[in-house]
Structure formats: structure tokens, C-alpha cells
Specification:
The chain has 489 residues and is mainly alpha-helical. Helix 11 runs parallel beside helix 18, helix 15 packs antiparallel against helix 16 and helix 16 runs antiparallel to helix 19.
Length: 489
């Protein structure tokens, strides 16, 4: 009876879930503007410090589906608490880190926190009244978007008032409070799914991603034609093929490759991969660029707060444009919206590459970038949902978000490789490194637009609505939880 009584208080459940998602969202973005500070404090270089972001993205891309699957099997609320515990443990280790290796390990542990997203959506689906589902999902998605934007802005004031270690202490406190509250107030899962975790695919996924990322990030040091780099790339290819084959043969695959082979699914996932390459690399390297000393001839000597404010227009525009993407998609079709958004993203990268002599140019570039990403993310979510049966929408859309994270880890490693390829005498990157890097990201966005033209035309309902609850974990990355549909083109 106590459990049933607790189930009626879905607003309390929502408050607990929102607190956990907020902690995760903050940890995604708080660190971004302070990478140069961490680099200096831990006595490392720009190439290595990029792994503070890359390790987090890599870990999240692997653990998000794993934690979601475990939650379905043994109870979402139990795994939600455990996931928050891992997030807190990683934050504690990061706060105490005295060298870059420990910091990278801590960030990898924090990446386990990516599981809060599918678990939160699953708990909402289980616990909320049918008429409240869509609104609750939209609010959680908004919290993720707004929390990410706030993290970028809050990093500077927190570091100025305290120091960068508090960027981990404060989220850790919030995470622990959320975990305790979840233990006492989130009801036990009424729905369990039989099965087991296929660990071989998880290991192979980790192995080929690590091999590829190490090769990309170390290529400037070892040489692109060196045996180490070529060997790691070859190993990545072999391991990736083995991963696909094992997934196809697994009784309970981590990722359903047959579903992933659907034309509308793999094309949207290819777009997601390329967009992720651009977005996360900008998160990592634009603060580095503007914080570069003025003595270099191209840097702005910006503070952490100033560099965070330069990225703020992107979050704001993603939110605003995401809210209006529905109407545009209904008029011209979701496929065209993805193409348009990708091309707008390419324009923003070109602005960063060739028009970066004044800060107002950077504000314009990031605002344009937010508009492009907002359109692309919103439209992709609906196209994925339209492409698969209702029972597979959660897996398909969640994997689309996951592939974007994988793209982000690849993009960050590639950008580090290009930017640090020919350092100046003082050890800082040359302006040409950033110009070439942002131009490369622009090329990735153009390729995303080309890939989007391959998305099959959907000739059915003009709008996607929730039917059996918030099945698309992809909403976690869509500003404002916008869901858009498609129409005949």
C-alpha cells in the first residue's frame, strides 16, 4: 500500500528525476570553458587535455545503452540510483585529481551517468498519468538543454569565486542528494524485461572506439604514416566489423543491427555522427581559441566567463529554433529541415574559420550554429520515430543520440590532431591550426547535408505524437523536447 501511495505522487518523482538530470547536464558543459585552466594546473598539453572531454563522451556512448538495458531487467529506480552514485564518484575523483590521468579516469566514470536519460524517460513512462507524459518528457528535455547552457555560463563565476575543483564538488553534492531522494521517493519499477546483457558487443564497441580515438589523437606525435597509427586504425576496423557480426548473432543484442540497417535509420545516424563531430569539437576548442593570449596575434585573452558567454548564443538559439522547428517541418518536410540545418551549421563553421578577428563575429557564428543544430536535432528525432515500429522508437532514437556522442568523441580527437599539428615556438597552437580545424568541421557539416539527402521520403502522418509514452530517448538532446513530424515531399 505504501508503494501504491507513493506512485500517486508523480510530481515528487519528477522533481527527483529533474535534479539528477540537472547534475548530469551541468557536468556535460561546466568543464568545457575551463579546459585551458585544467591544462595549466595539471601540467599537460592541449592534445592530452582534450581527453577530459573525449573520455566522458566515449564512456557515455558505451554506458547509456548498457544502463538502460540493466534498468529494464532489474528495476529502473535501482539503476537510476546506482547511475547517480557513479556520477557522484566520478565527480569526487575529478575534484581530488592532481594529474591529468586521474582526471581522465574520473571523467570516464562520470560518463556512466549518461544512463540517467533512458532511465528517467522509462520511469516517467511507468509512473506518470497518460495525459502528463508528453509534458513531463518535454520538461526533462528542456532541463537538459537549459542545464547545458547554464553550465557554460556558470563555469566562470564558480572558478572566479572558488576554483575549478568546485565545478565537480557542487554537482557531486547535487548528485548525492538526488540519489538519496531517488532511493526514498522513486517507486520501484512495475515493469521488468527478461533477458541479459551481451557483454561481448559492449567490449568490442569500447575496443574499436578507443583504438580509433588514440590513433587520431596521437597521429601528430607519432606521424600519420607510422606503424602505430596505421596499426591502431586497422585494429579499429577489424574490431568494428567483429562488433557488428557479434551484435547480429547475439540473442539479446546491445544494439539491434537489423533495425539500424533500415534506410531511414542509418541515414539519420550518419547525419548524427557527422553533426556530433562538429558540435562537440566546437565545445572543446572554441574556449581554447578565445582564451589564447593576445600576444599570439589571434587570441583574445578571454576569461573563462567571457569564453562561456561566447558559447551561450548557441544554447539559446538551439532552444528557440527547436520550439519553432515543428511548423517548418510540417511545411517543407523533416528531411529538408535536416539538410537546411546542416548547411546552416556549415556556414557557422566557415565563420569561425575565416571571420574571427572580433568577438562580435564569434557571437554571430555561435548563434548561427545554434540555429542549424536546433533544426537538425529536432527534425532527426521525428524522422527516426517515423521510420521504425512503435516498440523500437526508444532504442532507435536513443541510439541516434548515442551515435552523435560517438561522433563527438571522434570530432574532439580529430580537432586536437589538426590544431596541435604545428605548434609555435612558445608551444601554443598557430592560428592556422584553428583555421584548418574549423574548416574541417565545416566540411563535416557539408557531408552531413549530403548524407541528409539520402534520407528516404516519409509519406505518412504529418506529425508525430506520443502514443504509449515517451519512448524516444533522443528527446534528451532536443531543445525544449520538441517533436516534429514529416509530410509528403
Amino acid at each position: 500500500m505504501a508503494s501504491e501511495t507513493r506512485r500517486t505522487h508523480h510530481q515528487v518523482t519528477f522533481a527527483v528525476l529533474a535534479a539528477g538530470v540537472t547534475a548530469y547536464a551541468l557536468l556535460q558543459s561546466l568543464v568545457t570553458p575551463v579546459l585551458p585552466t585544467i591544462q595549466a594546473d595539471l601540467h599537460t598539453n592541449q592534445n592530452t587535455v582534450t581527453w577530459v572531454l573525449t573520455a566522458y563522451l566515449l564512456s557515455a556512448s558505451i554506458f547509456t545503452p548498457i544502463m538502460g538495458r540493466i534498468g529494464d531487467m532489474i528495476g529502473k529506480e535501482r539503476v537510476f540510483v546506482a547511475t547517480l552514485g557513479a556520477l557522484a564518484a566520478g565527480s569526487l575523483l575529478a575534484a581530488l585529481a592532481t594529474n591529468v590521468t586521474t582526471m581522465i579516469v574520473a571523467r570516464a566514470i562520470q560518463g556512466i551517468g549518461g544512463g540517467v536519460l533512458p532511465l528517467a524517460f522509462g520511469i516517467i513512462r511507468d509512473e506518470f498519468p497518460r495525459e502528463k507524459l508528453s509534458g513531463a518528457v518535454g520538461l526533462i528535455a528542456s532541463i537538459l538543454a537549459v542545464g547545458g547552457g547554464l553550465g557554460i555560463v556558470l563555469a566562470g563565476p564558480i572558478v572566479n569565486a572558488l576554483d575549478y575543483h568546485w565545478l565537480f564538488w557542487l554537482p557531486m553534492i547535487l548528485t548525492l542528494v538526488s540519489a538519496i531522494a531517488a532511493h526514498f521517493f522513486v517507486p520501484k519499477s512495475p515493469v521488468r524485461t527478461a533477458g541479459r546483457i551481451s557483454w561481448a558487443p559492449a567490449v568490442l564497441l569500447s575496443a574499436w572506439l578507443v583504438a580509433l580515438l588514440v590513433a587520431l589523437s596521437q597521429a601528430p606525435v607519432w606521424g600519420w604514416g607510422s606503424g602505430k597509427v596505421l596499426g591502431l586504425i586497422a585494429a579499429a576496423v577489424v574490431l568494428a566489423v567483429a562488433w557488428v557480426l557479434v551484435e547480429l548473432r547475439a540473442a539479446t543484442p546491445l544494439i539491434d543491427m537489423k533495425m539500424m540497417a533500415r534506410p531511414a535509420v542509418w541515414t539519420n545516424n550518419l547525419v548524427a555522427l557527422l553533426v556530433g563531430v562538429g558540435m562537440y569539437a566546437v565545445f572543446a576548442f572554441l574556449p581554447e581559441f578565445v582564451q589564447t593570449p593576445k600576444s599570439t596575434g589571434y587570441g583574445f585573452g578571454a576569461s573563462i566567463t567571457q569564453s562561456g558567454l561566447i558559447l551561450l548564443p548557441m544554447s539559446v538559439m538551439m532552444f528557440i529554433v527547436g520550439l519553432g522547428a515543428n511548423g517548418l517541418a510540417n511545411r517543407i518536410g523533416g528531411k529538408k529541415v535536416v539538410v537546411t540545418g546542416s548547411l546552416i551549421g556549415a556556414v557557422s563553421m566557415a565563420l569561425l574559420a575565416f571571420a574571427h578577428t572580433s568577438t562580435w563575429e564569434l557571437y554571430v557564428a555561435t548563434a548561427v550554429m545554434g540555429a542549424g543544430f536546433g533544426l537538425t536535432f529536432a527534425a532527426m528525432s521525428s524522422l527516426i520515430v517515423s521510420a521504425v515500429p512503435p516498440a523500437q522508437t526508444g532504442v532507435a532514437s536513443g541510439m541516434n543520440a548515442n551515435i552523435r556522442t560517438i561522433g563527438g568523441s571522434i570530432g574532439a580527437a580529430l580537432m586536437a590532431s589538426v590544431v596541435t599539428a604545428s605548434p609555435a615556438a612558445d608551444g601554443l597552437p598557430r592560428e592556422a591550426g584553428y583555421t584548418h580545424g574549423f574548416a574541417m568541421l565545416g566540411a563535416a557539416m557539408v557531408l552531413a547535408a549530403v548524407a541528409a539527402t539520402l534520407i528516404p521520403v516519409v509519406r505518412r502522418s504529418t506529425r508525430v505524437e506520443f502514443v504509449d509514452g515517451p519512448q524516444q530517448a533522443e528527446l534528451a538532446a532536443v531543445p525544449g523536447g520538441t517533436v516534429v513530424g514529416d509530410k509528403p515531399e
